[in-house]
Amino acid sequence: MATRPSPQQAPSLPKLVFPPPGKTFPSTYRQEMAPQMRADQIEVVHKVRQTPGFTLAEYGDLHPDKENFPGYKLNLIRYTDDGKGVIYVYVKYRGDLVQDARTDVAQIATITQSIVAEGAAPPTLSALIIKYEDKNLANGEMLREVWTVPNVFPATKSSVEIPDLFPVEMRAFIPTQTEAITTAGNIDDPPTLAAGDLSVTDEQLTEFTKRTTRIFRTVEVPVTLVNYALTEEYGGGVVSITRTVDTNGTMTVDQGLLILSSKVTNLGNGFDLKETVSLDDTEWPELLGDHTDAVYGIVAAISKKVVPAGTTWPGVAVSISSPYVEIEPHDKWRSIQIVSKVDCDTLPDDVTYPAVHRIDLPPLLLGVVANWGFTGGSSREIEYSRVTNSSGTAVGAIARAQVSVSDGVLGSIEVLVKHGYQGPALASITRKFFCGPPDPSIVPAITKIIPVTGTASLIGKHVTFTQMRGSGIVDSGGTHFSSAKDGNNGEMRTQTMTFGPVLSGAIDTTTTQGGTGSSANTGSTSPDINGEVYSAIAILAPGSVAGTLHVHVPASTPGAINSGDVLVVEAIPEEWRFGIWVYHIISVKVP
Questions:
Q1: Residues 36 and 12: beta-carbon distance below 8 Å
Q2: Does pTM surpass 0.90?
Q3: How many Å apart are CA 293 and CA 31, to the nearest integer?
Q4: Could you tell me the sign of the dihedral formed by the alpha carbons of 473, 477, 478, 481, in that order?
Q5: How far is CA 387 from the centre of its chain?
């Protein structure tokens, strides 16, 4: 505390007017004469009378009314003798006043107060000046106050965050919470996420405090949300989309006939999300349709349905009753069943259309004939000779006459045919439809073409007749010999022929061809040694020889095929599908 000066030491000063213009003192203040001070140091003298019992202020204390009297400090204490109380004298110096203060962020700032001329330029600002203010004192001067800190407060902020993997639709059931707490200390960089936290932010508020903000969820599991949608898969239908959040590791994927998809996703925050899409029904729908064959125009009714895997014939009952059931495996849980049926009343009408078809017809037998030839003639041989001994004496004579006549019929077989047509021919194909294998009686019969093989046998005959008359030599006893000899030599010649196959009616004929007719020949010898003459005569009577031709041909089917005839050459059965048979009947017109 400053020493109280003696009243006698304070010189008299002119009376000063308080408060300054525009200022109002509290009611406890009153105006008095200022004590004697050095005039160059005093800017304003402010005296306050305090009633008895007031605690004496210390030297250097600021004026209690800091707002209206910035920079005024207790400089001198003086007692008065009027018995009314203590007089406090506040003096403001012209020199800079420097003091310290605590900022909002708990930094120690240096506050410099100075008197500057009104309109003076502001100080040079920097990051370390956190506050600057000029107050006009209404006397041509300003009170300037500058707050300066030793360093820039970093206001450090650090956060860590993970994506919010909960489906948007489920967040209404598990809303987020935000908690912010101010504590002493420095921030954690980076902060640590606890279970259920989505983000944590640490922010340095002051030199000594920090604020931690957590955004988190408190999840009571399981949490389930069901939505609905349409699907086109496996015939379509309404599907349920079930999302469930539960503790990590407690759920598995769903499987089965009605499950379209299922998956379990680890959200990375201690929870799993299971999403299952399943048909909202007990079975997949039956799909009905028709299939029209592009070639035949046959219409088949079709039922298609997804059935449990492992289903075997006859399958699952559907609206179409038919033994034609096809079940194809699709995956581990499903098979696809297709039931087909053709309504026999809807089979197409017969269809006939032109075509070209090759035919190869057998030849037609025109006839079997013999080309006959004739053999025959006559010969005559007369022999007369004398026989002498070694001495040249005639001992006898040979006189002989020999005549021959012959007749014969020979020939060859000739088969006359007309070759059948071979090559392409105009045809028509008729397509007929049947429910099940048709009765053979209603299928047009194939034109039977059964050619035959025939035989022809030709027998030829040749006959020679010879007669000899005459005498021989005389033996040693002088006896005369005479002789007569007839001969008839017949010869058969046979030729057999097989021919065919041919078309022909039945033939079984025998034809005969005779020889040239009667034939005779004579011959006479000269007289023999006894003067006797010998005559030989050979005669073949008419009809002595004849040739025959025998032809045998059985009847073919048909006996003949003529131009313009229509032949049914083929009836081809085809088992189409679903018990339907198609016959392709090919008819050919003979050129």
A1: yes
A2: no
A3: 124
A4: negative
A5: 124
